[in-house]
Amino acid sequence: MDSRADIQITKLDNTHLRIDAEDSIKRELSDYFTFPVPGAKFMPSVRNKYWDGNIRLYAQHTGKLYVGLYYALQQFAKDREYSIEGQHWETDVEIENFTDNLNMGFELRDYQVDAISRAIKNRRQLLVSPTASGKSAIIYCIARHFLKIHKKKVLIIVPTTSLVEQMSKDFEEYGYPYPIDKMYGGDKVGNTKIVISTWQTLSRMPKSFFDDFGAVFGDEAHLFKAKVLTGILEKLKHIGHRWGLTGTLDDTQTHKLVLEGLFGPTHYVTTSADLMDEGVLAELDIQCLVLKYPPEVSKEVVQMDYPREMEFLADNERRTQFIKNLTLDKKGNTLILFQYVDKHGRKIFDAFQKAGIKSFFIYGGTDTKNREQVRELMERESGCVIIASYGTFSTGINIKNLHNIIFASPSKSKIRVLQSIGRVLRTSKDKFSATLFDIADDLSYKNRDNYTLRHFKERINTYSKERFKYTIHEVKF
Question: Which pLDDT does position 206 carry in this prediction?
Answer without folding.
Answer: 85
